[in-house]
Structure prediction request, 738 residues.
Amino acid sequence: MTRTKPESKIIGIKPVFDSILVCNSKQLRPFVEILVQESENIDGQNLGTLIGIFEVTDTSEDSSYIVNYLISVIKKEYFSKSKRGPIESLESALHKANLALSKLAEHENISWLGKLNAIVAVTEKNNLHLSQTGTVSAFLLRSKIMTDVSEGLAPSAANPYPLKTFVSVSSGRLEKDDKLIIATASIFDIFSLEEIKKSSLRFSNKEFVQFMRTALSNEMEMAAVLIVELQNQKEIIQEPVKKSPKEINAFSRDSFSKSTTSGKNKEEKAGQEIQREIQATPADFIDEKTGHIYIKEDHQTIAPEADSVNYSTVIAKTLIAQLKNIRLPRLAMPKPNMEKIRFNSNQLVGKAGARIKIHARTAGEFAKMTTAKTISFAKKTSTKTSALTAKALSAENRNSASIFLKNIYRKLLSALQFILPDFEKIKNIVRRMNYQQRIYALLLLILIIVVPLVAIKIKNSNDAKNALLLAEQNKPLVVIVPLEQDKNVTRLDALNSVYSDNNILQTLNLNNKFFAITETSIVDLGKNQSFPLPADFGVPVQTTGMSDLNLLFLINKENRIISFSPISSAFKDNAISIPTDSNISSIGTYLTYAYLLDTKNNQIYRYPRAEGGFGAATNWLKDSVNLSETIDMDINENVFLASNNFITKLFRGKTIEFSIENTATPIHIDKIALGEQSGTIFILDQQNSRIIHLDADGKIRTQYYHPEIASANSLAVSEENKMIYFSDKNNIKTIAIN
Prediction:
């Protein structure tokens, strides 16, 4: 006899968070914070909720940003990779927090050491994972028993070490009606652990939260409590798995057993089978998974009917008939009478040939007659000539011949006199001239002779030049390919334009989100949303982003600095003291420090983040470096200063050896940007229309060439998105990183 398993119920628990933050002094607010954060993406829901309390008991200005900075680092790393598990993500976030605190210590900010109290925890499904440093505690109330679940997790306070701020992670299982209380140590100044336990058991959760808030607000200067109550989630009933009926063995007794199905059930089954057959009759069916409609092929052969009408054939025939009717009028022309054409052409050719023959006959007769006359005249002339030569010339004939020759000579002389000038007259005219007239006449004569010669010479010279120009034009063109001799050159066919506007000043990357800074606004390129600058601020002259606080900073020509938060979409004035005789040519940030480069005083000022702005500046530059030619600056753990053709690398104010690999085409630096992950360097070279990607040692990885890069005025890079952003005055364009 088979047994049916009872329906199983999976009961989930849902954490409800109540935070109590007391800070009766405005100056103490930056030193304590409560964290409750879920993933903003659906993919990260498996990571649960990140919670915690952070407190710094050192209230100096250098420690005022530690709490916000630490929360920013932990949140960013924990939710950065949704495919990781909660424990792995928490460990990675704590490791990143330790590294960040270590970097602060490297920059000589150590006033917080031994005075940082924090608990970082994760609640996901029914699990709790937490880590502790300092004196903040976590208590679990279960079945009227209060347990300190954070005991022993904090590292030794005797020798604090930044890289060992968060050391251990503890994990446990949460149950229904559990209550987790995370609190700073200051609450024990007014409550004992037993009093907290009794109050929690006596009051409902809402009343307990109100009781704690009232007591702490009245008695404490600064305290924080986070209460997590585990409540029932709606029940999820798991339906029993339906088993398919087993095949009946023909030789088993089941095959001969009587059916116990009632008549009513039989009728229902019959109706269902008929309905299924009706639904299965159409050849078409819809795929339940994809929603696509499919048509089954009917394999039954049907004999074609004689009288069936094929509409496509009828339409085709009709169209062809109409096309023929359209062409017939054009072709319905009378056919030419070819016989008549041949007869007429033969008549015309015959008449033309007859006329040509008549003319030819006439010409031949005329030529014969002319030739005969010429021959007879030549014969007569030769006869007369021989007769004259045979006679002796008489004296009379000789006289007449001489007279005839003299007349010819006289006519020749008169002709020559008419052609040649009269030199006697010229001499007489010259004699009558004075000295000045003779000079003018000579000059005129020279001009008459020289000017034509000069004109001829100029013409010949111009002809020669034109010939040379023509020869130059006819020479084959030599195409010069930019960066032909350079290595690792990627020639881009087209650029992707992501934004267009007027008067774009800068493109900034803030936590892999890009913003355009114009003369009048800040534009979130991802959301395509514009935020106008304050009306009294004017035009920004320097801009930068602080990733750890997720803020953008802008400075105007009066050295006024404002911040913009993409989260709250709000602008805020920031207090900062900049020397009055300075010339701030560049600004950058690292961690929560701002670095301002002063080319006039040849100094880099470092400002720590403080409440309401920035604290007092320190002169960060220690080595002698000429900053007058510095074009741009960017910062990671090192400071990089860009000049026209070289980059200076600094660490803790001192220069470090660094050089750029030489290229066939000399590099001209206009802007630089650093890869936030690998530390690689990107150089904008407007003069050669390229962006050069260097590795951390200054060796060339890739050179991106496109003519439009020549007009770029800013550069930003996201290695995570593998994109380069650059802008001119009107457009922002992107290049994919190889």
About this structure: Residues 113 and 161 are 8 Å apart (CA to CA).
